[in-house]
Give the backbone structure.
Amino acid sequence: MKEVNKVTTPTDESNAYAKIHETLEAVEKYLREQSFDGGSGKPEVPDEGANFGHRVRALRGKLGLSQADFARRYGLDLGTLRGWEQGRRNPDRANQTLIGAIEADPAAMASLILKSMLNQDRDAIARK
């Protein structure tokens, strides 16, 4: 008998991963194309705290999420998120990439992060 309530098929999952991979590649390409400091190979990050915080706050607003909801949905520490938005903390490269990917495709990133969190929980339970 055919399963009717199946949420995803392998094809759907493969397409989702392909789309997320494509999004992350676009973010990585963008970051590589940024200006570089004196040939050191390290991208310049202009006034990272203030600009990044405004960018994250605008993204949250666009998605209609509170700080707590945004942090929970995307696997971020609430204190870190608040620090970015208030300009007290600067993001590392991984978090810059994460926010770029969320901007590009919020639903796909939320789905991927949720799946990752569920897998981590399952693995932790299995180790007990």
About this structure: Residues 109 and 115 are 10 Å apart (CA to CA). The first helix runs from residue 10 to 32.
